[in-house]
Amino acid sequence: MSTEPRRFSVFLVPAAGDRRWADGVIHELADRYDTLPFEPHVTVYGGAFSNDAELEPVRRALADAAAGTGQITLPVAGLGVTEEYFRSLFVAFGEDPALRRLHEAVKGAVAQDPGYVLVPHLSLLYADLPLAAKEAAARTVALDRREIRFDQVKIVVPDPVTGWSDARRWQTLFRLRLGAPAEKVTTVIFDYGGVLAEEGFREGLFELARRQGLDPVAVHGAGMEAVYASGYVLGKGSQSAFWQSLRERTGLRGSDRELSNLILDRFVLRPRMMEAVRALRAQGYRTVILSDQTDWLEWLDRRDGFFREFERVFNSYRLGKGKRDPSVFDDVARELGIAPGEALFVDDMLANVVRAESRGMRGILFEDEPRFERDLKRYTEV
User: Fold this and answer.
1) Where along the chain do its domains lie?
2) Which regions form coiled coils (predicted)?
3) Which residue spans within 54-186 are E strands per DSSP?
4) Which one of 161, 197, 251, 281 is most buried, counting C-beta atoms within 10 A?
């Protein structure tokens, strides 16, 4: 199934003092000209992606580049104005080798380079105004610095409907601090379905749909919603309520036991992943499960006996909170008594990895076992 490409940009974000100055100017000009304020930034690169997997190489490239790059300091060349909406009034910068390397790292990671040209500038105003009015606005800006420092880099996407024009709807997918000393990873946190085991929920629903002549993708989507809407995945509802909700949404037929067994049979542990868990433990790393699951996870452990390989198992059914809530990663770090940066989180859903990274953890998007093993070596000695 094809998807419409979405836009993304890589932003450099000013360090605290310079950010306060730019933020103040942006808000003052937005109030004066009745337009929207936005986060101060320099665009390093702009491109498009069709699915989450296409952004993963960009995330890796930024992580590698950021680890070897301290704060980036750009020399101020002056103020500029153009007739373009997104370059109405801006601080122009001279060339900087570190910025160029960051740009080239992203360019080399994208699936298809659209030919984005790096013209470093920090916008202060987005407005549909005559050029003369923009020039007048520029004369009111006190540009009292010769350089501006930047200490963060991030991936940002616009709203799919309003695009970049509504800055209130910009969404940050990934953020890194430049040159931040990396804490040593002590703990590896694994998702269960889709990482440690085959994704039985998805595969089971697909099979049920095929057997009953229903749309597999639609049934899986309805299942994801029903498991939350029924409260089952957060321990606030029952298996019976989940299946009843899914029957009503899709027309699925069968008893609770028949339907559940077909899903549970498809959660099959991956021997190669369990060997990786044992290798981590042998090297002194703490291994943990964090899964959006129901009491099925405990049934699966009774069948397969895998909990013993992990120091702790955090199940949304018992926590009353799932990975859709980013604060669950704070809770897990606190329960384990570790700083977020000591944790490496592994999940097969990019949205969950992004949420973990937004709380300070390192992340690996699981795609397949060989890729996982290569990625694991970047963070551990296994």
Assistant:
1) 6-177, 187-195+269-379, 200-264
2) none
3) 72-81, 89-93, 121-125, 147-157, 171-177
4) 197
